[in-house]
């Protein structure tokens, strides 16, 4: 890799990016999902590719229109996934061979314990609302952290609701420690914030719990700032 800020400073690096949000089926026609569009993860994939990296993008339920920019890029390989289990299988296989993992996907924490074979119908439940029993999904990032090869840089994302920036950063630091990643990108979300918009602010917390940068603007600008920080971390570890 070259000098931060130059257009090919990610040349020679292989990157795995996960984007979007997993969907956990309830029955053949319904699912539990989340509001992640995949825009921030796709922006990271495109920015890394344009800076020279080879990119594997695992897209969980990302709309075609959002994926299009990545699809047009010759050095981005896209694989679509649906559930957390599918994302886990694809991500843990792909992670082994890359220099950097950026886990931007919103992974459902729980899935429905037993998925109905046929559509759930009101006439079959005799007026009593069904109760969905949930079971916890595996922590994909934890598996990648446990299996990490030497020299691999791991980046997690955390979308948090918080009353203040102080609370946001405190939650971020706690999560960074719990996850054991080299960098955690924390952003604020809420009913009217963080989703369905082209803009984002990422607070980047490193392994020493330091807020090393706050990057943002368009999701592409946030992605570029994140990539600068990852290169800086990798340079620091080399010396
Ligand atoms: N993640 C993952 N597998 C999961 C859940 C989360 O790999 N089953 C990853 C996400 O992709 C993200 C990071 O872990 O990069 C943090 O996700 P988050 O949902 O904020 O963390 P959780 O440990 O699930 O904690 P919380 O209870 O706050 O949701
Ligand atoms: Ca979670």
Automatic annotation (TrEMBL):
Q: Name one GO cellular component term.
A: phosphopantothenoylcysteine decarboxylase complex
Which EC number(s) are documented for this chain? 4.1.1.36, 6.3.2.5
An example of a Gene Ontology BP annotation on this entry?
coenzyme A biosynthetic process
Indicate the segments forming the DNA/pantothenate metabolism flavoprotein C-terminal domain, all copies: 11-232
User: Which reaction is this enzyme known to catalyze?
Assistant: (R)-4'-phosphopantothenate + L-cysteine + CTP = N-[(R)-4-phosphopantothenoyl]-L-cysteine + CMP + diphosphate + H(+); N-[(R)-4-phosphopantothenoyl]-L-cysteine + H(+) = (R)-4'-phosphopantetheine + CO2
Keywords linked to the UniProt accession:
Decarboxylase, Flavoprotein, FMN, Ligase, Lyase, Magnesium, Metal-binding, Multifunctional enzyme
Q: In which pathway does it act?
A: Cofactor biosynthesis; coenzyme A biosynthesis; CoA from (R)-pantothenate: step 3/5; Cofactor biosynthesis; coenzyme A biosynthesis; CoA from (R)-pantothenate: step 2/5
One function term, GO molecular function aspect: metal ion binding
Q: Where does CTP bind?
A: 109, 119, 138-141, 157, 175, 179
What does this protein need as cofactor? Mg(2+); FMN
Q: How is the cofactor bound?
A: Binds 1 FMN per subunit.
Which parts of the sequence are annotated with region: Phosphopantothenate--cysteine ligase?
15-239
**Its job:** Catalyzes two steps in the biosynthesis of coenzyme A. In the first step cysteine is conjugated to 4'-phosphopantothenate to form 4-phosphopantothenoylcysteine, in the latter compound is decarboxylated to form 4'-phosphopantotheine. Catalyzes two sequential steps in the biosynthesis of coenzyme A. In the first step cysteine is conjugated to 4'-phosphopantothenate to form 4-phosphopantothenoylcysteine. In the second step the latter compound is decarboxylated to form 4'-phosphopantotheine.
Q: Which family does it belong to?
A: In the N-terminal section; belongs to the HFCD (homo-oligomeric flavin containing Cys decarboxylase) superfamily. In the C-terminal section; belongs to the PPC synthetase family.
The protein's name in its UniProt record: Coenzyme A biosynthesis bifunctional protein CoaBC
Species: Leucobacter chromiisoli
List the taxonomic lineage: Bacteria, Bacillati, Actinomycetota, Actinomycetes, Micrococcales
**Part of the intact protein present:** 182 to 420 of 423
